[in-house]
Amino acid sequence: MTTGRGTRLIAAVALSLAAWMAPANAARLFMPTGNLTSQPVGHYEFCQRLPNECDERTPKEGPVELTRQLWAEIVAVNNDVNTRIIPRTDMEMWGKEEVWSYPGRYGDCEDYALEKRRELMEKGVPAGDLLLTVVRQPNGAGHAVLTVHTSLGDYILDNLEARVLAWADTKYRYLKRQSETDSGEWVSVRDDRAPMVAVGSVR
């Protein structure tokens, strides 16, 4: 008998299989990045608490090969974390903004991303291919997702979206993400797609 979680996992695999079979056009496979930029305040404080988490060095080489097995693991982790963690804002949990942490039962967007990163690293994906990423939503609000850097392009794991989408197929404006070679450094993203109409700021 298929459980509720099993049904959701099957649905998530079906919804996102097309992305594996037909990624974004070749010009948009990989997120264009620029120079080193400022580390988000929440990630800096996370690194101060857990320095080993931000001292991972990955040799500069090709991205992880996106096999069918890895795709299934990515979809499963995304679905499981999105289902297991109950969304709560940092203000609700901590009484202040920008607290990045591994979630227990509850979590904010960056906590979902951190947990997905940790679980995929446990499955053997290199740290340099699992990149915390800061984006702006269409309404102008800041948001954090996880970018998985693969041989077939950059894919986004998002607590607000059941599907795993190619980065260029999402609705976000990309601002910055972790460096592929040093988990404690961040680089800018040169998102030159058609601009969104949005207000607000992101730290």
Topology:
Layout: H1 4-21, E1 33-37, H2 41-49, H3 68-84, E2 86-87, H4 90-94, E3 106-107, H5 109-122, E4 130-136, E5 142-150, E6 153-157, E7 165-166, E8 173-178, E9 186-189
Helix pairs in contact: 1-3, 3-5
Judged by helices, strands and strand pairing, the structural class is alpha+beta
Mean pLDDT: 87
> Remind me, CATH topology?
C8orf32 fold
Percent of residues in beta strands: 15-25%
Unreliable residue runs: 197-203
One letter per element, helices H and strands E, the order comes to: HEHHEHEHEEEEEE
End-to-end gap: 46 Å
| Count of discrete structural domains | 1
Query: Main beta sheet, described?
Result: 7 strands, antiparallel
> In the CATH hierarchy, what is the class?
Alpha Beta
Please state the CA-atom Rg, rounded to the nearest Å: 16 Å
Task: Quickly give the CATH architecture.
Answer: Roll
The general outline is: globular
By DSSP (H or I, 4+ residues per run), the number of helices equals 5
Number of E-type strands = 9
Estimate percent helicity. Answer: 25-40%
Strand order of the largest sheet: 1-9-8-4-5-6-7
Explain how this protein is built:
- The protein has 203 residues and is an alpha+beta fold.
- The chain has one domain (4-20, 32-189): C8orf32 fold, CATH 3.10.620.
- It is 31% helix and 21% strand.
- The chain is built from five helices and nine strands.
- It has a seven-stranded antiparallel β-sheet with strand order 1-9-8-4-5-6-7, covered by helices on one side. A two-stranded parallel sheet has the order 2-3.
- Strand 5 and strand 6 (153-157) form a beta hairpin.
- Helix 1 crosses helix 3 (68-84) and helix 3 runs antiparallel to helix 5.
- The protein is globular and about 40 Å long.
- The model is unreliable at 197-203 (pLDDT under 50).
